[in-house]
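During data preparation, a discrete fold description was generated, as reproduced here:
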Amino acid sequence: MNLRKNHLISSGRRLISAGMLGLSIAMVPCFAQEKEPVQYLDQGWDDAMRELYYFTPQGSRLMPYSWFLALETAAGETRFSDPANMARYGWLNHGRAKLNPDNLPIGFTKEPANDSAEKYWVGMTCSACHTNDIQAKGKRIRIDGGPALADFTLFITELSAAVQANLNDQTRFGRFAANVLGHDPTPTETAQLRTAYRTFAAELVGNLWMRTPHRPSGPGRVDALNQITNALAVTNLGVPENLRPVSAPVSFPFVWLAPHLDWVQWAPVASSPIARNVGETLGVFGKAEFKDPNNLFHSSVMLKQLHEMEEWLATLKSPPWPEKHFGKVNRKLAKRGRELFDKSCRGCHNMPPFDYTAKEINAFGKQFIKTQPIQITKVGTDSQYTHSLISRITATSNLGPLLFQNESVTPGANFFLTTVGATLKKAIEDAKLTPQEIFEYNGYRFYPPSGDDPVPQIWKPSPEALTAIKASPLVGIWATGPFLHNGSVPNIYELLSPPNERSKTFWVGSREIDPVKLGYKSTKNQLTAKERSQLFLYDTSLPGNHNSGHAFPKKALSPKDRLAIIEYLKDVREDAGQGDSAASTLPAAAKYSSGSEKSSQPVTDKK
């Protein structure tokens, strides 16, 4: 299952040859289009809220909308956007809706583009990678905010092939032109569309090539930080030498509780929700200008919608274990599991009733659920992710004098955080946010004024955060496998086992739950030969895939104790032991004032 790395250099842009799908058919996940009606759990959302989360645009621009709808697969047998084809990559179908008139998958949005020749673009939003379905005995259960099992590598590889096949086949392009224009085009119209399409195709295929890992990552994983940094430092900045391999895939995290945590990302490097969401938008094909001095840092990000998304997620609860479909929880065993968890696991994983940050470190007296940074050398898990964070060096080009104190190079993580911050600052200026709105959009993550500085400063990660993995609360963890930051452990039972007892290889892509070991069915004994042929074989011997570490507690748990902790993790919710949800225990928003409007203006990037 080797990804072929041959590529052509054409017009200064790297293009993948049209026939190169790069993945052997027998080894890629092939998700069937689901026919069983989906069932929803009580996560605090109604249908209207779900539709907003699934399909609200945020500023992503993958392809002109009419082009995407008209594009055929590389084989030419069907439209690329057909629900059956999109289901092959693991994207979930929700059906037509007011915000989804053309039946695109969850997370694929109709994006308005007032500054573009095209009226609408198809884009991606966070719900594409943070919504999932789990199955049990033919029943399909929706997990809002859960990590998707979508195969992003397969998706972009086949999208690239489809885009190029359309350009290389005159008959196919004729069908494409007729569908885009809505009538049989004249030769002049076809030629004009082909010229525009050729320019776009060169840019998109090069962009997708930069995002393609040396080895397929499989379902549910993506090297987001390297992909985003490549987009910022290569595409936006125009410096090809900044390109680095996409080689450190991590699992999509779950996002319930995320608005209430002190830090997010697998490495605890993000505190501001709006900065995190701007970075996410740029990572899913959002546009930002880093070269034109007259339009510097202007972007396609939709600030208001990103903030609304965060507010909606703040109301999302973790999924309750559906006993009707997955089996009853053994409450007696769960009680024993909680005792074991509190003794062996809670030192890292904050659980209800939650511990909160101190009021004194926040300018508004607000508190957030504590997470725990654990150095990668201590936890012992695969270090490819943190190594890529600290080892990357990026040329700053024309941004050196503006953002990097005239330095010609800077650490890649600093380039990422600083340019996302500059893009956010420009978006805030364009949106004319008030000081209070700036505090609100940043989630009130500000230190109190101190010394000679009367202005609250936004929380910033420590240097040590770049070499740490964040231990988070585990409510709803049953719905989020595979486990560890790189998805290298198939179930909770193995995660609680010594590393030498864990699977060396296992299959990823099945949605069928394993209610005993708490993960998805992934072994030869659980899957038929036909099922295995349609799934992704995860090999823990490969770089970035290692399943080492997390050997806690020091004295290994007995199999019986592992099952007890599993039973507790099925049953625990945010409101356990505190009478209300974690979200509602957070202090109400407080306005900051130091006596003058001018001095209350926050600083988002203090030098």
Notes: The longest strand covers residues 131-136. Confidence is low (pLDDT under 50) at residues 1-28, 577-607.
